[in-house]
Design goal:
39% strand, Neuraminidase, five-stranded mixed sheet, four-stranded antiparallel sheet
């Protein structure tokens, strides 16, 4: 962990450790966003479930799933490793579905990530983006992934990752593109230095692309999503902050009250305000806002939206309603169940709850660092009236479920 003096030098001002946290969070001004957990009426959905990647000996870690839809086809990526989370040799794999998530192609590695992983680095799936330059141009699928290595003196005697998020070197976001639906991929290109993003880019109302990490949020007006990325941060984040899991742990330890934010996901209301929801160690999500399309961000405010410390996804359904996909039970830390889709008409009160899954947590089948959680890092896409959700199970298997979007209409009325 960097010393406080180093952080203060980076900021160019004399701050105490607690002042660094105060600079980021507006503790006395809570945001009104809530899910009314424990009060809202819930409906259990009837849905179809399937598993698209199973753990096996020697390849027993799978996590960080993402899914998008383009031209009626679902595309998904996830991280794949030998045993431990974010260990050297971790790759990014890809699959697709042409029948609205009923069946999936056998997942395959994205070769550029295998080459990087073979050099002793870590590749983490961070999202997908689809782009077509013109009506007669091929659809381009871009897969984003974070990359870093471990310092040699931080590796275990077997050459694996240390048992803590530390000693990262050369952190960066990279991307590869495919113009044939993921059959082949081009060479990897560096997109942004010093960041491992949480989710892939999505367009704001004005067309600008916004891609969130932990305390860093990047934006570009390049419609291809490859170039022109500019980085904005939360207020108080020092220059030079490396925004990956090791950077998060350093920031968390600096403040004695344990302030820490990670894994942002956003939605934009009709007034143009972008609301970035952030995971915290407090069993409640926090929120920062941007009123200039991601160029600057306000101090973080706590919310009453409950959470059990897992990645979440916020967005809007095709009919304009706001959604939050998360595991919101504050008492189920580590279990990551139940999985709930919460809807809102105004982007403030997410009080229409649909149970996507409530199976109990079970022990992992294979040993590995930081494994567990029944519905890990859920992510959804809507294709031709069908909602498709992907998640990891114990960070070992990649599972999906699907149900008609129509089930979310007027069920509570």
């Amino acid at each position: 962990m960097r010393s406080s003096a180093v952080w203060h030098a980076l900021m160019g001002v004399a701050l105490t450790a607690s002042a660094w946290g105060q600079a980021i969070e507006d503790r006395g001004n809570a945001a009104p966003i809530t899910n009314r957990w424990g009060e809202a009426t819930t409906v259990r959905l009837r849905l179809e479930e399937t598993t698209i990647q199973r753990a096996r000996p020697g390849r027993s870690y799978h996590h960080h799933p993402h899914v998008i839809v383009a031209d009626g086809v679902l595309y998904a990526t996830f991280s794949s490793g030998r045993a431990h989370e974010d260990d050297v040799g971790q790759e990014v794999w890809f699959t697709r579905s042409t029948d609205k998530g009923a069946t999936w192609a056998a997942p395959r590695v994205i070769e550029a990530t295998r080459s990087i992983a073979a050099d002793g680095e870590v590749c983490t799936a961070t999202g997908l983006y689809a782009y077509r330059a013109s009506a007669d141009a091929p659809l381009t699928i871009t897969a984003y992934f974070g990359v870093y290595g471990y310092a040699q003196d931080g590796l275990t005697s077997e050459g694996g990752r240390p048992p803590a998020d530390a000693a990262h070197v050369d952190t960066r976001c990279m991307a590869v593109q495919s113009v044939d639906g993921g059959e082949t991929w081009g060479a990897a290109e560096k997109v942004v230095d010093g960041v491992v993003f949480n989710l892939g880019p999505r367009p704001l109302a004005n067309g600008r692309l916004l891609m969130p990490a932990n305390a860093t949020f990047a934006y570009t007006d390049d419609p291809t999503g490859l170039r022109g990325w500019r980085v904005a941060t939360l207020p108080g984040v020092p220059p030079g902050h490396v925004d990956d899991s090791a950077g998060f742990q350093r920031a968390l330890k600096i403040d004695p009250e344990g302030i820490g934010y990670c894994e942002g996901s956003w939605f934009q209301t009709d007034d143009g305000v972008v609301h970035m929801m952030l995971r915290t160690p407090r069993n409640r999500l926090a929120c920062t806002q941007s009123r200039d399309n991601g160029e600057t961000w306000a101090r973080v405010r706590p919310t009453a939206f409950t959470d059990n410390c897992s990645r979440h996804q916020f967005g809007r359904l095709p009919d304009g309603r706001f959604f939050a996909l998360s595991t919101p039970d504050p008492e189920a830390i580590g279990a990551r169940t139940p999985l709930v889709l919460a809807l809102s008409e105004d982007g403030v009160t997410f009080d229409r709850h649909y149970i996507v899954g409530d199976a109990p947590a079970t022990p992992p089948e294979f040993d590995g660092l930081f494994k567990g959680g029944r519905y890990g890092y859920p992510h959804l896409a809507v294709v031709e009236g069908v909602v498709v959700v992907v998640c990891s199970v114990n960070k070992e298997h990649i599972a999906t479920c699907r149900f008609p979007l129509a089930l979310l209409h007027d069920v509570h009325d």
